[in-house]
Design a protein that fits this description.
The protein contains seven helices and no strands. The chain is mainly α and 91 residues long.
């Protein structure tokens, strides 16, 4: 699945580009979604986790932006949750 196909799947799940933009929030507009579909090679990495959550993991970050090593980020987050001292620098 290409990033554009993954994003289109997310749009189909929520119902429209405008709705997806509203649910992402943070100043994202329908025009951003349209640009990502038509011109961008990938969805900006900072929005992938939010989109994945919005569609309840029906579309994965790995599909929206395959340039990022999501495995490393996902496992670093899990490790930080299991060992809270790693986040604060205290052990």
């Amino acid at each position: 699945m290409t990033p554009q196909e993954a994003l289109q799947k997310a749009i189909d799940i929520v119902g429209s580009q405008a709705r997806l933009a509203r649910e992402i929030g943070g100043g994202i507009k329908q025009a951003h979604i349209s640009y990502w579909i038509t011109h961008a090679e990938v969805v900006p990495a900072e929005h992938c986790p939010t989109i994945e959550r919005i569609v309840q993991h029906a579309v994965r970050c790995e599909d929206l932006n395959p340039r990022v090593d999501w495995w490393v980020l996902r496992h670093a987050a899990v490790a930080a949750q299991l060992q809270p001292g790693l986040r604060t620098g205290t052990h």
